[in-house]
Specification:
single chain; 423 residues; alpha/beta; two-stranded antiparallel ribbon; 7 strands; elongated
């Protein structure tokens, strides 16, 4: 299934070759579109030549239509596509600054490189200026880092913002783009060609443009009819592989390994307790967050796990393993990486690390009695949360951690992503 993992070859001959071919092709298309000429680029701000606006929006609506269509056809997993985090106010301010620079210099970063590659002097000076600006920004960003990193909305898309099906959003964006194209054609006649109002042609005449537009609308309608895959669908794509890993216990880690992860300065542990809130409040591990498995697929807290730091290990836990395995299926279907389960759950944790009898005691069972996997096998005399040593036995001046033998399973898989600029 796409997207194809071409970045696996990053740093190798084939990786460099693919990057070179893509870069040369992209640059050639920009140059053939006239984007290496600062006069043509700047003309859009004076409404004389809106080629840049039309080309960019054409690329956007075609890519958008195909992405969500392929997703609806189960040919593309959109959760694996790179979407940069949205920092709304910093983006607005940065966009305004870049727009002013675009008008003054006649280029954006990508088109300036194209101009420099074709030996244009203005492109060379723009690139040098951009490099100097990057240096200044890097040296001063600490002064306004709170603003620069503020308003983080994470992976925030139009369907999420509008609360609509992706196909409906595609149709809305297409309508906006078509209106913009129509307005651009009229603006070019008036400002670029100097036609008087009575001489303006308000009738779209290009049959090829009509055909292309109707084709995209048809794709949007098909996308709406098919609908987008949900978490269950996405789990179905990977069920054979991941169910095998669960059965072979490749993701269930020993309490001792979890303790090491929690106290490893090179890793960031996100402990997700999927039990009901009452049991979570009774006792939980240090720094654990409560995201009950019921409703997890629609939880904003669960979606935040998609944008954790690259060195993050997410560990799920319930009293046993049943609840954690249900959560594993949901979060894997959402695309969360570095996901593990506390083997044996909280029960195994308390069996491994001693707890003060004045706080909790093991529940005795009659001979031949059975106990549910998700039943807590300790009776707490009061709710303690994570305020006792058992929540993290390695913390404290007098911490005593027993020597434990276990096979280590945690490995950190980093997201592979290509981020783009203005082009």
């Amino acid at each position: 299934m796409a997207p194809f993992d071409i970045l696996t070859h990053g740093g190798t001959f084939w990786g460099y070759l693919v990057s070179l071919v893509i870069g040369l092709g992209f640059g050639a298309v920009l140059e053939m579109s006239g984007f290496g000429d600062s006069r043509k680029l700047a003309a859009q701000f004076y409404l004389r030549d809106l080629t840049v606006l039309k080309v960019m929006f054409t690329a956007i609506i075609v890519a958008m239509s195909l992405i969500f269509l392929f997703s609806a056809l189960n040919l593309l997993d959109t959760s694996r596509l790179y979407v940069s985090s949205t920092h709304l106010l910093p983006y607005i301010v940065g966009g305004l600054i870049m727009g002013v620079g675009f008008i003054i210099g006649g280029f954006c970063p990508g088109t300036s490189v194209v101009a420099m590659a074709t030996l244009k002097v203005d492109g060379l000076f723009f690139v040098l200026g951009a490099m100097f600006g990057v240096f200044v920004f890097g040296e001063t960003v600490v002064l306004f880092s709170d603003f620069f990193n503020g308003g983080d909305l994470g992976r925030f898309t139009l369907p999420q913002w509008l609360g609509l099906d992706a196909g409906v959003v595609v149709l809305i964006v297409l309508a906006m783009a078509f209106l913009m194209f129509y307005w651009a054609e009229i603006a070019e006649q008036f400002f670029g060609q100097g036609k008087a109002r009575p001489a303006l042609d308000f009738r779209p005449r290009s049959r090829s443009k009509w055909l292309a537009g109707l084709s995209l609308v048809a794709l949007a309608v098909i996308t709406i009819a098919l609908g987008q895959p949900d978490v269950d669908d996405r789990w179905g794509w990977i069920e054979e592989r991941e169910a095998g890993r669960l059965a072979r216990r490749e993701v269930q880690i020993h309490p001792g390994e979890l303790l090491e992860v929690m106290n490893d300065a090179m890793l960031y542990a996100r402990l997700v307790d999927v039990r009901p809130e009452t049991e979570f409040n009774l006792f939980h591990l240090e720094d654990a967050e409560n995201i009950p498995v019921a409703g997890m697929a629609d939880s904003a807290a669960a979606r935040r796990l998609l944008r954790v730091a690259p060195n993050t290990v997410v560990v799920l836990m319930s009293n046993g393993e049943t609840g954690a395995e249900r959560a594993y299926r949901i979060l894997k279907g959402m695309g969360v990486l570095n996901l593990y389960i506390l083997g044996g759950g909280i029960n195994a944790w308390l069996d491994t690390f001693s707890i003060d009898p004045a706080v909790a005691r093991p529940v005795s069972h009659s001979p031949g009695g059975t106990t549910d996997d998700e039943s807590l096998r300790y009776r707490f005399l009061r709710s303690v949360g994570d305020r006792i040593p058992a929540a993290n036995p390695a913390r404290g001046l007098h911490a005593e951690v027993p020597e434990l033998a276990f096979a280590k399973k945690v490995t950190v898989q980093k997201k592979k992503a290509i981020s783009g600029g203005c082009d």
